[in-house]
Design brief:
Blueprint lengths: L4 H32 L3 H10 L1 H10 L2 E2 L1 H4 L1 E8 L1 H8 L5 H16 L4 H12 L22 H30 L5 E5 L3 E7 L4 H9 L4 E6 L2 H17 L1 H18 L11 H5 E6 L2 E6 L3 H8 L2 H4 L6 E5 L5 E2 L5 E15 L3 E8 L5 E7 L1 H13 L5 E5 L2 E4 L11 E4 L5 H13 L6 E9 L1 H30 L1 H23 L3 E2 L1 H30 L4 H33 L3 H34 L8
Parallel strand pairs: 1-17
Antiparallel strand pairs: 2-4, 2-16, 3-4, 5-10, 5-13, 6-7, 7-10, 8-10, 9-10, 11-12, 12-15, 13-14
Helix pairs in contact: 1-3, 1-18, 6-7, 8-16, 17-18, 17-19, 18-19, 18-21, 19-20, 19-21, 20-21
């Protein structure tokens, strides 16, 4: 065995290394089984007492993919129409009409929104230039820029927005604490996010979609706001058409329910879905399911002219109570459209608790922000300032005194998790454009466990069938190949654990494929040995020539497959990458086990033990 000393050393070193990397996986699996046998109270106490150990094992254990562990698969798409509007230096009625036409064409036809936008603009006026709406001297966009240059500029901005969004989303997900997330670009404006182990989908949706556009705004003048409220109520009182429609809906609904129409129900369509407050900066109270109806009524152009100039209505982020049916109620607040300060001045944000142990987000501003904040608070003592995040009002505190320190807080939060999510999006930065979830899939833990059982069953069944065939056909040589096959699987799992790769259901399919490829290499070797023995050579000479002559065929077949796996990993996404990772790891392991390990065993049996080893 002296001639194989180096090979034996390498093999033992690899086995020890794989054992080192797989040990946390084995311990974590045993720990999970132990926890599953405990009661709810015992499990909670055990986790609290051993939290550090459990977390350490979870981080070091072999990672399971979305299809095995459960979690969320989300496809996000950049709102290109919103980005175009934000890039425009000025927006008029013509711009909005062209953008609406382009949005409809892009939705109904196979054309990008930017191409549809340029086409619709040129069809409206062939001699007009888009440069009247877009200016960016740093990017070379001036009044003289052609429509083609504007289109190229917009495409570049969309690409940069997607790349920046990927960085921000990755930062948010990392702060959220998901292990081994997958965040990849798909096409020109989509991002695919896979989050294994996530059990709170709604919280993840808020985390991914939130643009983190933090704004500090003044509130509307209470007297002007309440005057507008009365005018709008009076408008709908006198709107006989709307009142008739509301009455008809009430009558139809009552008939469907088998009830008599209630004479006490307000015939005013606005009052039917909104409770006016008539005090301060609160315009009204609206139930969650009624917000769409209220928005439609208040968007009426004849109603819009009744609002004070430069004022819009925004909802509170969290409910202020519930109605008799248990529906959440929200304040509708009058807020000025002009933004006094943005979240770009925030240098730090953290979760804190007030004197009543309620969570809040404390924010610190840079010097420029502190200067503006001091001026803003000093000029508005006794008035409300709205803190708006993604177009909903989180808090609107009354300014008691001038604040020179550049500190502010977001209060009125429901939980510590909500406060932590706000801190996450603020620290990650604002998304360059709004994101829309266009596809979402949730895989439950039970389905993941079923996939693991099915995958293990398929691997063990395949391994058993192959092992029995090899023993039946190649006798002792088949037993040697089977031993190498078991070590091959250990090597594959060890490689995945060492490189912190993720095992997926397609990855298990990759392991099955490499089992076949590993056996194929041994079949080539054994057949060569049999051919040499048929010519009258000794067993030792036949083994030497068999390995030597089969090597080139084995190497060529495996190296080309390895390159195929590398290409799949480079250009594929999700399940394709999972398959490619295990395929490449399996090829490396099978080459070593089929050529090195089996040769060590053959040399030991033939040279040291002087045995006559049969290869069929």
């Amino acid at each position: 065995m002296k001639r194989n000393g180096f090979k034996i050393g390498i093999t033992l070193a690899l086995l020890l290394l794989c054992g080192y990397y797989l040990y946390p996986t084995v311990r974590y699996a045993l720990l999970q089984r132990k926890l599953n046998r405990m009661s709810e109270e015992e499990r909670a106490a055990f986790i609290e007492a051993n939290y550090g150990t459990i977390q350490n094992l979870r981080e070091k254990a072999l990672k399971l993919g979305l299809d095995l562990q459960g979690g969320m698969h989300v496809t996000l798409e950049v709102r290109v129409d919103a980005l175009i509007r934000e890039l425009a230096t000025e927006v008029d009625e013509t711009f909005e009409e062209v953008l609406a036409v382009a949005r409809e064409r892009a939705r109904s036809g196979n054309v990008s929104l930017i191409d549809a936008f340029v086409e619709a603009f040129e069809q409206r006026d062939p001699n007009a230039r888009l440069s009247r709406y877009f200016r960016n001297p740093e990017a070379g966009i001036t009044r003289r820029s052609s429509n083609e240059e504007i289109a190229a500029y917009l495409r570049q901005q969309v690409e940069e927005a997607v790349n920046r969004a990927i960085e921000i989303i990755r930062d948010r997900v990392d702060r959220y604490g998901v292990t081994e997330p997958s965040i990849q670009k798909q096409g020109t404006r989509r991002i695919v996010v896979e989050l294994p182990g996530v059990d709170d989908p709604e919280r993840v949706r808020r985390l991914l979609r939130g643009t983190a556009r933090l704004e500090f705004r003044l509130m509307a003048d209470p007297q002007l706001l309440q005057a507008a409220l009365q005018d709008i109520i009076a408008y709908y009182e006198s709107d006989t058409t709307a009142a008739a429609d509301t009455a008809a809906v009430d009558t139809s609904l009552a008939a469907l329910l088998g009830e008599q129409p209630s004479p006490e129900r307000p015939r005013n369509p606005l009052l039917a879905v909104m409770q006016p407050v008539g005090q301060g900066v609160v315009f009204g109270i609206v139930a969650g399911p009624d917000t769409a109806t209220v928005n439609r009524l208040l968007r009426n152009p004849e109603v819009q002219v009744l609002f004070p100039t430069g004022v819009e209505l925004l909802y509170t982020a969290n409910p202020v109570g519930t109605d008799e049916q248990g529906r959440p109620l929200y304040y509708l607040l009058g807020v000025r459209k002009e933004v006094e300060l943005t979240g770009e001045v925030i240098t730090d944000a953290r979760v804190e608790f007030d004197e009543l142990n309620r969570p809040q987000v404390s924010m610190t501003m840079n010097s420029e922000g502190a200067r503006i904040w001091a001026r803003l608070t000093g000029a508005n003592v006794g008035k409300h300032i709205a803190i708006v995040l993604d177009n909903v009002v989180y808090s609107y505190p009354v300014v008691n005194e001038r604040i020179p320190s550049g500190r502010s807080s977001i209060t009125g939060l429901d939980s510590r998790e909500e406060a932590q999510d706000i801190v996450t999006v603020l620290k990650s930065g604002a998304l360059p454009a709004p994101m829309e979830i266009i596809e979402e899939r949730t895989v439950g833990p039970s389905l993941g466990e079923a996939s693991i059982r099915a995958g293990l069953r398929s691997v063990l069944t395949g391994l058993l069938v192959v092992a029995l065939f090899m023993i039946f056909y190649y006798r002792t040589g088949g037993m040697i190949a089977d031993l190498a096959l078991v070590l091959n699987i250990i090597f594959i799992l060890g490689i995945l654990a060492a490189f912190k790769a993720t095992l997926t259901l397609p990855g298990i399919a990759g392991i099955m494929l490499t089992i076949g490829m590993a056996v194929d290499a041994n079949v080539l070797i054994f057949e060569r040995i049999r051919e040499e023995q048929a010519t009258g050579k000794t067993l030792r000479a036949a083994i030497d020539l068999g390995y030597s002559k089969a090597f080139s065929a084995i190497f060529d077949a495996n190296i080309t497959t390895f390159f195929t796996g590398a290409i799949l990993y480079s250009f594929g996404v999700g399940p394709i990458q999972g398959f490619a990772v295990t395929l490449m790891a399996g090829i490396a392991a099978s080459l070593f086990s089929a050529i090195v390990i089996t040769r060590i065993i053959f040399d030991y049996l033939v040279l040291e033990r002087k045995m006559m080893v049969s290869v069929g």
